[in-house]
Amino acid sequence: MYFELTEEQRMIYDMTKRFSEEELKPKAEEVDREHKYPAESVAKMAELGLMGMVFPEQYGGGGMDYVSYAIAIEEISRHCASTGVVMSAHTSLCAAPIYYFGTEEQKKKFLTPLAQGQKIGCFGMTEAGAGTDSAGTRTTAKLDGDNYIVNGTKNFITNGNEADIAVVMVRTGEHKHKGLSMIIVEKGTPGFSVGKLEDKLGILGSSTVELVFEEVKVPKDNLLGSEGEGFKIGMHTLDGGRIGIASQALGIAKGSLEESVEFGKTREQFGQPVINFQALQWMIADMATRLDAARLLTWRAAKLKDKGDVRYSKEAAMAKLFASETAMWAATKAIQIHGGYGYTKDYPVERYFRDAKITEIYEGTSEVQRLVIAQSLIKG
Amino acid sequence: MNSAVIMKQVPDSEALIKLAPDGTGYVKEGVKFVMNPYDEFGVEEALKIKESAGSGEVTIISLGSERAVEAIRTGLAMGADKGVLLNAGEGYACALGVANALAEELKAGDYKIIFCGKQAIDDDMAQIGPMVAELMDIPCVTVVTAVEISGDKAVCTREIEGGKEIVEVALPAVIACQKGLNEPRYASLPGIMKAKKKPMEQKDISLGDAKAQIVKWEAPPERPPGRTIEGDDPAAKAAALVKALREEAKVI
Amino acid sequence: MAKEVLVFAEQRGGALRKVSFEMVTTGRKLADSMGGECCAVVVGDSVSGLAADLGKYGADKVFVVEDAKLKDYVPDLYAQAVAEVAKDAKVLIGGASAMGKDLLPRVAARLDTAMASDCVKMDMEGDSLMSFRPVFAGKAFVTIKVNGTPQVAAGRPKVFPAEENAKAGAVEKVSVSLGDAKAVLKELKQEAGDRVDLTEADIIVSGGRGMKGPDEYKILEELADALGSNATVGASRAAVDAGWRPHSDQVGQTGKTVSPSLYIACGISGAIQHLAGMGSSKYIVAVNKDADAPIFSKADFGIVEDLFKFVPELTGEVKKLLAE
C-alpha cells in the first residue's frame, strides 16, 4: 500500500518508522517492565511535531491529514504501544475536541500548547458507573457566578497522571443525554487531583488513573461549546479517537507479524527453519492479510474524516473493531509461532499480546462498535 | 557561509540485493532507496554550521536518476535550503566521470565547505571526495569525525589506523564524513511539509565514456563449509579447537 | 619496456607499513604476467633508505621523492609527487589503507584516469588489470576494468600475501616541484592502547551481545593476551551501541573492516552487517550458546557452548600450547 501514499506521507512513514526503531524499540521493554511513562520519547516526539500533527499551523500544529496521523501512530505503536496510546489519547481525545468545539480564545490558550506538545492532554469521560453507558455520568458541574463547581470521580483515564489539561464530561442538567457538558480543567486547580493508578495487564507505560474532583472551581469560560452539548462532543471525539486506536492496533499487529516471520526464519526444528512448515505459513499469511484489510479500513475512515463534513462513524467503528480484533488474534498467533520462547520475556510477543487486549475494550468496546455499525445500517 | 552536500541515493542497507540474471547488475525493483547514510552526517554538519553562524544556505547536490529527487527531498526536510539533481540516468559506475560532473556544478556555486560521505554503501568506492577536491584544486580531508570551523579555516579530526590526525585546511575544502561526526536529526513534520516548497533544480547531463567499467557481477564467493567442534565439556572442546587451529588452520 | 607496474609504498614516520610489502608482492606478480618492470614509489623526507626493503619484496626500481614539505602526509602534495612518477605507468596500485584511500583517488583524478578501490584480487588479462572487489558491504562482488593510464587499484590490507622475492630495488630520485601544501597536519594522536590496531591484527577476539556487559570483556582480553602481541579485541555493533566498548573497537559495516588470519566471534549472532566487516578473515571461529545463530553458517569452526565457560578454557589451552 506504500505506493498509494503522497510524497509527504512516505516521508512521514520513513521518519516515524526510523524514530520508532531507534528511539522507542530500545526502551520499550524497560517502559513495560518498570511501568515507566516514556517522558523522554514523548518530548522528542513533541519536538518533531508529532503531538499535534492534524491541527492547523496557526495553533502550533502540523496541518497534516488523518492518513498521515494513522501512519505515524501505527509506526510508533509497532515498537511501543504505550507510547502510541499516549500520542493518540493526547491528540484525538483532548486536543481534538478543543479544536472542533473551542472558541478562538480556548484554542489559543489550550490547543496551542497541546499541539506543540508542551502540555499533555487527557479525556475524562469514563466513570465507575459510566463506561459503555457514558451518559451515566454523575460528575456534576454547578454554575456559581463565573465558575462551575465540579464534583465527582473519573476513572480509567489515559494520560491522567501526566496531563496538564483535561477535557471532562460533566452533568450540568438532568436530562440523561442533553444534561451533559464538556469542560476543560487544568492541572493544579485546587480540588483536582489524581487518584488511584491502575495496575494493568498491558500498555504499562501509559498511565491509567482516577481523576478526583472535589469542589473544583473551573472558570465558566472553560466550557466547550454550550451546556448540553457534552454527549454530542463526546461521540464526535470518540469517532476520531477510534482512528487513533485502530492505528495503534495496526502497529501491534504489524509487530506480531514481523517478529513471527523473523523468528520463523531463524528457529530450526527437524533440520530446517520452522517457517518452512505449512502450518506457520498459513498463520503468517492470515496475519498479513488481516493486517492489510485492517489498514485499508483505517485509512478509509481517515480519508473520510479528512473530507470534513462527512459522517464517518460507521467506518471508524469498523476500523477500530476489525483492527483491534486483528491485533489480539495476531499477537496470540505470534506467541504460538514462537512456541515456548514466545511465552517468556526474552521475546517481545508476550508484551504485544498483553498490549493488544485493551484495544478491544477502550474507546468503545468491540460490542459498542458493533452496535454503532448495526445502528448505521438500520437507520439507513 | 554557503555549504554544499554531495549526496548519493543508494539502496537501504537492509535491502536484499539480488543479482540480475544476465550478470549486468542488481535488481532495482522492489528495493527501497534512501539517502546514503554517510551523506546524512554531511547534511547534519552543514545544518549545524548554518545554525551556529545564523546565516548561509545548504545545497544538496546529487548525481543520479530521477528517483534521487526523493532522497534530496529528505535532505530538504531535514532543513537544507536547495536541491540540485544532476540527472544522468541509471547504471553509471565510473567515479571519475561522476566527480567531473560534480566538480563542474560545484565550481559554479560559491560553496565554502563541501560535505560528502566517506563512501557510498552501494559501491563502497570512497573516491568522490578526494577526486572532486583534486578536480577543484582544493583540499579534502577524509574519514572525518570532528570539524571545527574558525573563519576561513577548518580543523578536522581524521581517523587513521591506530589513531587520529588533526588536520587544518583552508576553505573552501571537501570534507568526507565518517560515522561519529554527529547524530543526524530526524526530519521533523514541519520540515517534511516545507520540503516540497523548497527550490529543486534538475539538470540533464551526459557523462561521456566511463573509464572504469564493471565487467561482471557475482554472488559472494562461497566459504568452504565449516564444522562444529564436539566435546564432552568446554575443556574438551577448547583442546579440540586449539588442535584444529594449530594443525589444520595453522594460525597459532 | 619499463614501469609496467608502479606500487605506491606507504610510509608513516619513516617506516614502511606492512601493506606496502603486500602490494609490492602483488605488483611483482602483475608485472611478471606482463613481462615487465615492477617499480615502487615512496614519498617523504629522507626515505631513500626504505628502498632496500622494497627491493627485497620484488621491486626492480624504487622512485624516491624527497622533500621537507613531504615529511608529514599532505594529500595534495603527495598526489602531485606520485602522479608525476605514475603518469607513464601502465598500472598503479597501493594499499586501500586510510592513506591509500585518501591519496590514490586524488592521483587518479589528477591523471584523468579511474580507479578500483578496496580490491581483494588483482590479475592481469593481457594488458588490462582486472580488479575483484566487494560491493554492498560484501553482498555481491564485481570485476572492474579501467581504461586509462595508469590503471589504478587499491588492495585491501592483509588480504594479499607479502612474499620476499629479492630484486634490484635500485633507487631513482625524482625531483618534483611542489606547490604550497593545502593541508597542515597539526597533530598525530596515537590511540592509547597496548594492543595492535584492529585493522593490523593477525588475530581478533571479538565480543557481541552475548557478553552481557562491559566487565565481561576481561575474559576476551585475557585470551587476546595469551594469543600474542598480534592479537586484539573487537566488538559487534550491539556491544558498542550498549556502551560496553568504544566505537573504535567496532567491526562491521558501520565500523571497521578487518582481515585477520583468525577471527574468534564470541556471543555474536552474525548479522549480515557484522559479517561485512570480517567476512574476509582467513579463519572464523564462532562461540555461541545458540546453535541457530547465523554466524555458524560462516564459521570454519563452530563451538556451541556457553562462552563464559568456554573462553577461559580456550585461554588455558592456548597458553599450554604456546609454552611448548
Plain-language structure description:
- The complex is a heterotrimer of chains A (380), B (252) and C (324).
- By secondary structure, chain A is α+β, with helices and mostly antiparallel strands.
- Chain A has 3 domains: 114 residues, Butyryl-Coa Dehydrogenase, subunit A, domain 1 (Orthogonal Bundle), CATH 1.10.540.10; 108 residues, Butyryl-CoA Dehydrogenase, subunit A, domain 2; 149 residues, Butyryl-CoA Dehydrogenase, subunit A, domain 3 (Up-down Bundle), CATH 1.20.140.
- In chain A, strand 4 and strand 5 form a beta hairpin.
- Chain B is globular.
- Chain B has 2 domains: 202 residues, Rossmann fold (3-Layer(aba) Sandwich); 31 residues, no CATH class.
- Chain B has a 9-stranded mixed β-sheet, with helices on both faces.
- Chain C folds into 2 domains: 169 residues, Rossmann fold (3-Layer(aba) Sandwich); 121 residues, TPP-binding domain (Rossmann fold).
- Chain C contains 8 helices and 18 strands.
- Chain C has a 7-stranded parallel β-sheet, sandwiched between helices.
- In chain C, helix 3 crosses helix 4 and helix 5 runs parallel beside helix 8.
- Chain C starts with a strand and ends with a helix.
- The chains are: A alpha+beta (380), B alpha/beta (252), C alpha/beta (324).
- At the B-C interface, helix 3, helix 4, strand 7, strand 8 and strand 9 of B face helix 3, helix 4, strand 7, strand 9 and strand 10 of C.
How are the SSEs placed, and which strands pair?
The complex is a heterotrimer of chains A (380), B (252) and C (324).
Chain A: H1 7-33, H2 39-47, H3 66-79, H4 81-101, H5 104-115, E1 121-124, E2 140-144, E3 147-158, E4 165-171, E5 180-186, E6 192-197, E7 208-219, E8 223-224, H6 230-266, E9 268-269, E10 272-273, H7 278-307, H8 313-338, H9 349-359, H10 366-379
Parallel strand pairs in A: 1-4
Antiparallel strand pairs in A: 2-3, 3-7, 4-5, 5-8, 6-7, 9-10
Helix pairs in contact in A: 1-3, 3-4, 3-6, 4-5, 4-6, 6-7, 6-8, 6-9, 7-8, 8-9, 8-10
Chain B: E1 3-7, E2 9-11, E3 33-35, H1 37-53, E4 58-64, H2 68-78, E5 82-87, H3 95-108, E6 113-117, H4 128-136, E7 140-150, E8 153-160, E9 163-170, E10 173-177, H5 189-195, E11 200-204, E12 212-218, E13 227-228, H6 234-247
Parallel strand pairs in B: 1-4, 1-6, 4-5, 5-11, 6-10, 7-10
Antiparallel strand pairs in B: 2-3, 7-8, 8-9
Chain C: E1 5-9, E2 11-12, E3 15-16, H1 18-34, E4 38-44, H2 51-56, E5 61-66, H3 75-86, E6 91-95, H4 98-110, E7 115-119, E8 121-125, E9 128-135, E10 140-146, E11 151-155, E12 170-173, E13 183-190, E14 203-207, H5 218-227, E15 231-235, H6 237-241, E16 262-266, H7 272-278, E17 283-288, E18 301-304, H8 307-323
Parallel strand pairs in C: 1-4, 1-6, 4-5, 5-12, 6-11, 7-11, 14-15, 14-16, 16-17, 17-18
Antiparallel strand pairs in C: 2-3, 8-9, 9-10
Helix pairs in contact in C: 3-4, 5-8
